[in-house]
Design goal:
It is a single chain. It contains 19 helices and six strands. By secondary structure, the protein is mostly helical. It has one domain: Amino acid/polyamine transporter I (Up-down Bundle), CATH 1.20.1740. The chain has a two-stranded antiparallel ribbon. It has a two-stranded antiparallel sheet with strand order 2-6. Strands 4-5 form a two-stranded antiparallel sheet. A hairpin with a 5-residue loop joins β4 and β5. α4 crosses α16 and α6 runs antiparallel to α14. The longest helix is centred in the last third of the chain and has 34 residues. The radius of gyration is 22 Å and the shape is globular. It starts with a strand and ends in a 7-residue tail after the last helix.
Length: 492
């Protein structure tokens, strides 16, 4: 539902008091977001930052190479093509259903409102918790690196608190400030990693510059290459983070699809290039040493290239974790705003700051979740294990979310826009990507890994059952009216 009202209350606003002023979008309860605030560059960087570029390569390449050997870059390339088919589906929905709810609105509108609620329920395990385990993991890496290199003691939880405070400030201050921060942080982290990879081509290790990384015959085994592709798919996740900014974007039906496609294309090229450069710099004849390296291989490589300047790579990783915290906070708070607007969450989450038009209560709740979950889980199982456990949890959750979105693409174009139905775009691509993503989820937990990662299936299953229970209770007490409004924001 689009309207043009001005809100004049302090410190937060719910009800409009004057009409016909441009630049805001109103929800069911009168809460409004600032419209036309973001252009293509800002939305594109939101999607890219949501994938955490430095983290995506620096913390995944060692495992990828352990499975695929020297052809690790080929695994990223093949994963890129699979993710591209997945992205095509979301683009088809973003062109017609722009909403702050993102997947929540897409699935509610195209499959069923109950399915939309369960999508958002699972998204809590993704966007809402990503800031916590990302900042905890970075705090752990920073603590270890500073102690080993400089003898400095800097506890991981202190970094989490600082990162959370920064995230809360920029997201509270306004979507334009958040977008500007993401543009700056994104350029810095991508630039640093690309520089390191490029350096590898000018100072290659044993084996020199070669194309062996793109010859599948060089893979240790077919199953190893396959597992590397499976893992690499989720190094590319995050591109869908552009969708929830639709209501704050200029011409969202044009910009959001372009940002999603651009993020997938740029991240695909980035992962292939940087993984190739890092392997060449290390030495394609020394892959076993790369896999066995006890610390982040990029840190070792940077010290060889730049000496004390290696800290730039550490900075890029810190930068990446902070950027993904900001990006995922934007996604989770906008989704909660959309759900509260429809009535599926407390109305207080639609409260916006009068001046900045940001969902202040949603941001406060997200900040609380980040601190409590991040520190609590980190103290229980360790910040590094928190990262790996929750990475597996979000893998399983995203498999369901993406598959429901793909089903929505097919149903929407088959039933409501039959004149635009295209067999490849709206049936074949969603089917292929759904099968691939569900297989990724299966291979993530079969065979069951060691604890605490083995807890992941139970966490996701338990959370899903809890969501179903909520729906059953709401139906029994006759409080399902909000379900009918779940997709209303996306009505054309």
């Amino acid at each position: 539902m689009l309207r043009h009202d001005v809100v004049n209350m302090s410190p937060v606003s719910r009800e409009p008091v004057s009409e016909n002023a441009p630049g805001v979008k109103e929800g069911v309860h009168g809460a409004v977001l600032r419209s036309d605030a973001l252009g293509l560059t800002s939305v594109l960087m939101q999607a890219i930052a949501h994938t955490a570029p430095a983290t995506a390569i620096l913390l995944t390449i060692q495992f990828t190479v352990s499975q695929a050997g020297v052809v690790g870059p080929l695994a990223y390339l093949l994963a890129f093509f699979l993710v591209l088919t997945l992205g095509f589906g979301v683009i088809q929905l973003a062109r017609h259903l722009p909403s702050a709810g993102g997947y929540y609105t897409y699935v509610s509108r195209t499959v069923h409102p109950r399915a939309g609620f369960l999508t958002a329920w699972l998204f809590f395990l993704y966007s809402a918790l990503t800031p916590a385990f990302s900042l905890a993991m970075m705090g752990s890496v920073l603590e270890t690196s500073l102690r080993s290199q400089y003898g400095i003691s800097f506890p991981w939880w202190l970094f989490l608190l600082i990162g959370t405070a920064f995230t809360a400030f920029v997201t509270y201050r306004g979507v334009e400030v958040s977008a500007a921060a993401l543009v700056i942080l994104g350029i810095l982290e991508v630039g640093c990693v690309v520089l390191l990879a490029t350096w590898g081509f000018f100072s290659p290790g044993p084996g020199g510059v070669n194309l062996s990384s793109f010859n599948p015959a060089n893979a240790p085994s077919g199953s190893g290459l396959y597992l590397a592709i499976v893992f690499s798919i989720f190094a590319l996740t995050g591109w869908e983070g552009a969708a929830p900014l639709a209501e704050e974007t200029k011409d969202p039906k044009r910009i959001v699809p372009r940002a999603i496609l651009g993020a997938i294309l740029l991240m695909g090229a980035y992962l292939v290039f940087t993984s190739w450069g890092l392997l060449v710099g290390w030495g394609t004849n020394r892959v076993a040493d790369f896999v066995a390296c006890p610390e982040v291989p990029a840190f070792v490589l940077a010290r060889r290239f730049w000496g004390a300047g290696w800290i730039l790579v550490l900075f890029a990783l810190i930068n990446s974790m902070v950027a993904v915290a900001v990006a995922t906070t934007l996604v989770s708070t906008r989704m909660w705003y959309a759900m509260a607007r429809s009535g599926s969450l407390p109305r207080q989450l639609t409260d916006l700051h009068e001046r900045y038009k940001t969902p202040v209560n949603a941001i406060s709740f997200q900040t609380l979740v980040t601190v409590v979950f991040g520190i609590g889980m980190g103290l229980w199982i360790g910040p590094d294990q928190e990262f790996f456990l929750m990475g597996t949890v979000l893998t399983l959750a995203l498999a369901v979310i993406y598959s429901l979105g793909n089903l929505g693409v097919f149903l929407f174009y088959r039933k409501e826009r039959a004149q635009d139905f295209h067999p490849a775009l709206h049936a074949l691509f969603p089917l292929i990507s759904s099968v691939a993503i569900l297989w990724v989820a299966y291979k993530s937990v079969v065979p069951l890994p060691a604890a605490p990662i083995s807890y992941a299936p139970a966490i996701v299953a338990g959370w899903f059952v809890a969501g179903v229970f909520v729906l059953i209770v709401m139906k029994l007490i006759g409080q399902e009216q909000w379900l009918l409004r779940a997709g209303s924001a996306a009505n054309e």
